[in-house]
Every structure is written in structure tokens, then in C-alpha cells.
Design a protein that fits this description.
Layout lengths: L1 H83 L2 E6 L4 E4 L1 H7 L3 H4 L13 H13 L4 E9 L5 E12 L5 E10 L5
Antiparallel strand pairs: 1-2, 1-5, 3-4, 4-5
Length: 191
């Protein structure tokens, strides 16, 4: 009888252990399924990230090419302005300096990075800007679209100079006014 009780108790313990093992096995299967689902989600995310990375790389390549094209265009424009031998200044519709050419640097002693973006009227140089601003406003308004005049000024060396000033309307591809181009050359003095 004692042996039978021990056997029943052992069988009962064995059944209980088997049930716990089955429960643990089911939990492991559930965990494995969840891990597999998470792994699939991570693979999908990785594919999406790779696609996004490829798109960003393409955009980066396009931006690099555009940057190179802009550098080439900027160098060409600077070379053109330098070759003209004139002091060229371009202001936008708010009369802020947009381009300050090398000739303007040489003549007025103000570097392009010091002039660009500043209101033309605020420039403290030997050029009578207060007299020129109304000419710029009239040119921008198209009354007339081109103005030529001679002005008295003082160059960066403190020497008086007579400047032939030409103002022209700057237009975009659609014909909209975008600013004024000023071309300044030293005028020949009439004796």
C-alpha cells in the first residue's frame, strides 16, 4: 500500500510536471512566433531604410552636381565682371546689394562680402549714394528703363573721380523686374 501511494504521488507529480512543461513549451512557441514577427518587421523596416538611404544618396548626388554647376556659373560670372573692367553693382528690388563686382571693390575699397546683402543707401563709400538711390528707384519703376549720368565721387584712395553711371533694369526670364544693374566707369575729363 505504501508503494502504491508513492507510485500515485509520483504519477501525480509527473503529470503536474508534464503540464508545466507543456505550458512552458506553449509560452516558448508564442515567444518564438512573436520574435519571428518582430524579425519580419525589422526586415521590412531595414528594407524601407535602405530605400530611403538610396533616395537620399540620389538627392545628395543631384545636390552635389547642382553645387558644382553653381560654382562654375559663379566663377564664370565673376570672370565676366572682372573682364568688363567696369565697376558693376546689382541691387534687388529692395535696393539691397545683390552683386558687388571686382571693379567696385577696387574703386570703392569695399569687399563684396561687406557690401552684399546691405541696403545700397547705407553704404559709406566715396560714391554719393543719396544722389544715386532716386536714379535706382526711377530705373526700377521703368521711368526710364535705362539712365545714364555723370557723378562726382571720391575713390578709395581719396582721389576725386568723375564717374559715368549707367543704370539698367534687371529682368528675369518672364520679364519681371528683379533689380537694377549699375555700371560705373571713370569719365574722361573735358578740359
Amino acid at each position: 500500500m505504501l508503494l502504491r501511494d508513492d507510485l500515485e504521488r509520483s504519477n501525480h507529480d509527473l503529470e503536474h510536471a508534464y503540464e508545466e512543461l507543456e505550458t512552458t513549451n506553449e509560452e516558448l512557441e508564442t515567444t518564438n512566433e512573436e520574435l519571428q514577427s518582430t524579425n519580419e518587421e525589422l526586415e521590412t523596416m531595414n528594407e524601407e531604410l535602405q530605400s530611403t538611404n538610396d533616395e537620399l544618396q540620389l538627392i545628395n548626388d543631384v545636390l552635389r552636381l547642382r553645387g558644382e554647376e553653381l560654382d562654375t556659373t559663379t566663377a564664370f560670372a565673376a570672370s565676366t565682371l572682372r573682364s568688363l573692367g567696369s565697376a558693376v553693382v546689382v541691387v534687388n528690388v529692395e535696393l539691397q546689394v545683390y552683386v558687388w563686382g571686382p571693379g567696385a571693390e577696387d574703386l570703392w575699397g569695399l569687399r563684396a562680402d561687406e557690401a552684399t546683402g546691405r541696403p545700397f543707401a547705407d553704404l559709406d563709400i566715396g560714391l554719393p549714394v543719396a544722389d544715386i538711390v532716386p536714379l535706382l528707384e526711377r530705373t526700377l519703376a521703368g521711368r526710364p528703363p535705362r539712365i545714364e549720368t555723370v557723378i562726382e565721387a571720391t575713390n578709395r584712395r581719396g582721389r576725386p573721380v568723375r564717374m559715368q553711371l549707367e543704370c539698367l533694369v534687371l529682368r528675369d526670364e518672364e520679364g519681371n523686374r528683379r533689380g537694377v544693374i549699375m555700371v560705373m566707369n571713370e569719365a574722361v575729363r573735358q578740359e
